[in-house]
Amino acid sequence: MNFSGFQKLTLLDFPGHVACTLFSHGCNFRCPYCHNAMLVTEEKSGDVFSDEEILSYLKKRKGILDGVCFTGGEPLIQKELPDFIRKVKELGFLVKLDTNGSFPERLKELVNEGLIDYVAMDIKNSLARYGETIDIKNFSTENVEQSIDFLIGSSIDFEFRTTIVAEYHTIQDIEDIAKRIKGAKKYFLQNFVDSGNLIGENLHAVSRETLDEMRKTAQKHLQNVEVRGI
Known about the structure:
Helix content is 31%, strand content 20%. The chain is an alpha/beta fold. Strands 1-2-3-4-5-6-7-8 form an eight-stranded mixed β-sheet, with helices on one face.
C-alpha cells in the first residue's frame, strides 16, 4: 500500500467507534476545494507508512480501537487495498471506507466479500455540474451513479455526503442531489473549510442560513439530512 498519512486516534471519522485513519496517496479527481491537496497533486506526500508499521500498531491496539478508516485521496485506486483490508479484518477490526464512488466494481467486490462495515461516499455535486466540480471536462457520471445505486440497494451501513462550497453549490444543486440519492438513509452536508492546503484558490464557505436552507430543501426528498462540522 501507499499510505502518506496515519492518524492514530479519531473519535469523529468512524461514527460510533474509536478508530484510526489511514490516508492513501493519489486521486483520480481534482476537486479545487480538496483539503488534502498534497495527497492528490504530489507524487509522494509527507511520511510514507509501511504495511508492517501499521499492522504492528493495530496489533498493540486490539481492544482499544474498534475500527480503521481508509480515506485519501481515493483509496480504491490502490490495487493492494483488498489484501491489506483482509489483514486488518483478520485482526478483528471494523473497516470504514471513504470513496468518491468512481470505482463501482472495486467497491462492490469489497462489500460483497464482507471486508467493509461502513461506506462514506462523497457526492460532489448535481450530476450536471460534476465535471466542473471535480475539474475534469466531459466527465461521465456513469460509475458514480452505479456506486450510488449499489449502496442504496445494499444492506451495508453507509452515508452520502457533500462538501458545500459557495462557488460550486446552489440550493438547486442540493435538491438535484437529494432527488438522485432518494432512498438513502443518511445524507450529510459539510460546509467548506479552508485547510490552507487546497488545489484551488479563493474559495469560500456558505452562510449558516444558506446551509440550513440547503438542509431543509434536501429533507423534502430524504429521510435523514444533517449538517456536519458546525
